[in-house]
# Entry
Amino acid sequence: MALIQTGNGARAMASTGLSAQTVPFTEIPIIDFAPMAGGGDAAREAVGLAVREACIKVGFFYARNSGVSPATVAETYRAARNFFALPLATKQAIHIGQSTNHRGYVPLLEENTDPTARGDLHEAFDMALEVPADDADVLAGQSLYGPNVWPDGPPGFRAAMNAYYAEIYQFGRKIFRAFAIALDLGEYYFEPHITKPTAQLRVLHYPSQDGPVDDRQIGIGAHSDYECFTILSQEDVPALQLLNSAGQWVHAPPIPDTFIVNVGDMMARWTNDIFKSTVHRAINRSGRERYSIPFFFGPNFTTPVEVFPTCAGPGNPAKYPPTTAGQYILSRFDETFAYRKKPAEPA
Ligand SMILES: O=C(O)CCC(=O)C(=O)O
Ligand SMILES: [Fe+2]
# Structure
């Protein structure tokens, strides 16, 4: 510790050179999205400012008044529970490795979000925008597009997932409008880029890890998300933790009637890291099964992702080369999913 002398005595200072530190967050803000549906200009602007502050300081916020019907959410949990309870063979029949467009079932331990770990202790079902097989983009090989695949049962699963997708997409559009306000881009900046989104919906099941836990094999290893933002529904079983800039894990417990929204790496790139894609992980030690529903909102496959001019300038050069949404997401899937891993080069 260095000492700085002031007229009011000495002050201790950690020696971190000249770079200022981001204040480590200890709390996650709650933002009311009601104004994004019919609120006045000033109220929507206030939502944008709250989002801006949350994305700069924390990278996560809780959202109230999403417009998503609680009945749709409850029905999706019911369907997810029934799906994961199916025999393994029924789930494996739609294994994601058989899909050309990243749809289907991901068994326990086949994903590894933290490259230093040994696989994530969750199973998942992945779906995304329904695009017909003869669509021009599908035929052109834009491999995040295409038809969904569905399991043989349980009754109501497909309808619940489709209903949830439609509603959460509408909430996501509101969030994009709030982000655009937050970034001073004009409220509808993102609208043309989310007409055929690479947005993915998953349901997750985490068994409870009771007794001693190997810290290299937890529900979902430490990671940041890939897309623009994630909208997460967690039921009532706590597990999610966020890493602050002091390297401490902060709990993000379920709060009834909210979603958690967090910035993904694509938005962090777009904003030159002004918005933080905060690292997080999940460990279910509750003694109960845990289910959660993340929706990863990526824009259209061909949307260019290049640092916004408002987020770079003299003394603050763009840190990231331009890419496109689709290429960026695919490159991240390649690192994470066992079925996409390229075989090692022969020695
Ligand atoms: O289930 C959770 O609480 C977190 C899930 C998550 O971080 C993810 O799927 O990227
Ligand atoms: Fe995540």
The chain has one domain: 31-340. The chain has seven helices and 16 strands.
